Amino acid sequence: MNSVIQYLHPPRLVIIMPCYNEEENIQYSYESLMFILNDLIAQQRLNSSSGLCYVDDHSTDKSWGLIEELGRRDPRVKGLRLSANQGQQTALLAGMQSLAEEFELFLTLDIDLQDDPKVIPQMLSAIEQGAGIVYGVRTQRSVDSVFKRLSARLYYYMMKFLEQGIIKNHSDFRMFDRQVLHALLDYPERLLLLRAVFPRLGFPSAQVEYSRIARKHGDTKYSLFKMTTLALDGISSYSSAPLMLVFVIAITGIMVSVVLFLWAFSVYLKGIAIPGWFSVLFAVLVFGAFQLFCLGLIGTYIKNIYNEVKKRPRFHITDRLNV
Ligand code: UDP
Ligand code: MG
Predict the structure, then answer these.
(1) Cβ of 20 below 6 Å from ligand 1
(2) How far apart are CA 230 and CA 208, in angstroms?
(3) Residue 208 in contact with residue 37, Cβ under 8 Å?
(4) Which end of the chain is least crowded, N or C, by CB within 10 Å?
């Protein structure tokens, strides 16, 4: 099934890029991506109104000014500015939601172009052959720091253990058609981890491999805090397995305490003075830690429920450029 067939031919593609304090990357991404787009337009594989959309996640540097300048010179450059820093996932969602009716094809890409845009023609080929979603998959990440590689490995291992069905070494570099986007926008939850939702949509998909290159301009905008929040939110929004873990810990705790009780009781029966501090300390420390851990875990889910039931808007757009 080629889901693009019902729309314009050749399709209109928009490349959506989240952008947070990326002034060094605006002109660079514009030039590199327009070069690729123009080539595909010349080959009549893309419509000439294909373009770019920068979603400014409330940058505090010159990013928005530079985007506006580009948009005034070239109407194929679109821009959205969010009222507050909401994070990459929400910025992507704001872009996708605002452009859902205007384009047939969508590509999400980090503005630093670490995910190699040279594979875009290959991704388009997969769409032309009938895929609804094409995932960009990294073959190696030697340019990332040792910490980033190790934490990524741990994350993918945990997600696999929790049966998340997320695609290994794929982040937010993907191409998809309008039908897929409409399915995604039907997911009403506030906490949306895009890489966990897309594979669940169940459309025909394909993978295109690339090697991740080093950031050419500026530094990473993902602080350790932002990275950890993304990982924890991802796990607690898409898997209830950790709640089962509480149950396992509780049963283990009960078994340990039964053994401790039997031991203490036998000591009591023998009339030996109860040896004091070790057992008390052991029980206090171990059970105290178990309880805090379980409370924290349950708290995380309550936080999610709390955030979901409020049904607050996910973002506000303060400025629009050619959208
Ligand atoms: N980003 C964003 N909001 C944020 C943090 C990051 O929109 O609060 C964007 C950033 O501008 C970039 C993408 O998300 O386009 C990925 O960020 P980055 O390259 O810093 O992450 P890394 O590649 O280091 O994981
Ligand atoms: Mg990056």
Answers:
(1) yes
(2) 24
(3) no
(4) N
CA of 221 to the centre of ligand 1 (A): 5
| Higher pLDDT pick, 107 / 293 | 107
pLDDT over 90 percentage in the chain: 54
- Specify the pLDDT at position 274: 61
Q: Distance (Å, rounded) from C-alpha 168 to C-alpha 166?
A: 6
Q: Which atom of ligand 1 is nearest to the CA of 17?
A: 15
- Nearest-atom number in ligand 1 for the CA of 92 is 7
SS3 100: coil
Closest CA to 239 of 136, 131, 155: 155
pLDDT tens string 270-322: 877 666 766 776 777 778 778 878 888 888 888 888 888 888 899 999 999 99
* 299, 245 Cβ separation under 8 angstroms: no
Residue 40 CA, distance from chain mean position: 28
Gap between the Cα atoms of 151 and 144, Å rounded: 11
The position carrying tokens 């629009």 is 320
**Exposure on the CB side of residue 283, measured as CA atoms within 13 A:** 13
pTM: 0.83
**What are the structure tokens assigned to 42, written together?**
């010349």
Torsion angles phi and psi, residue 50, rounded to 5: -65, 150
Sign of the dihedral defined by the CA atoms of residues 218, 174, 5, 45, in that order: positive
Residue 3's pLDDT band, with cuts at 50, 70 and 90, is very low
